[in-house]
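Late entry, evening session. Most of the bench is empty. Finally got around to the prediction I had been postponing all week. Sequence below, unchanged from the version circulated by S.P.
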Amino acid sequence: MAESWRRTPTESPVTFEIDTAASVPPFEQIKAQAIAQITNGELLAGTKLATVRQLATDLGIAPNTVARAYRELEADGFLHSRGRNGTVVKAQPGDAAALLQLEARAYANRAAELGISTDEAQRFVAIALKG
């Protein structure tokens, strides 16, 4: 049976698995899994990913491998690197749902900062949607 490593960072719901016996290089495995999770909605726009070093450590691979996957995902428009502030999933152009997810995340964060309960925050949204 092939050895497999799994990482579920606390920063995001993303899970990567590396099959060390596969002929596909680890950076390609990370890329393919990230793209799949972004396109199927498991990984939402604005989600912060694990740092390169943390993910590399957790998967037991070289940091340059993870860095390459992140760079290529950024070049393909799936991720946005904010330097020391981390790497986040990028909203896709024309993807209204992804853009609204960003706004919803910001709203949820602000509600938490203000000490507003989830039920009350949802009630405010329901009222706003009704006009």
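Two things to note before I forget:
The first strand starts at residue 4 and ends at 7.
The CA atoms of residues 16 and 33 lie 7 Å apart.
Will write this up properly tomorrow.
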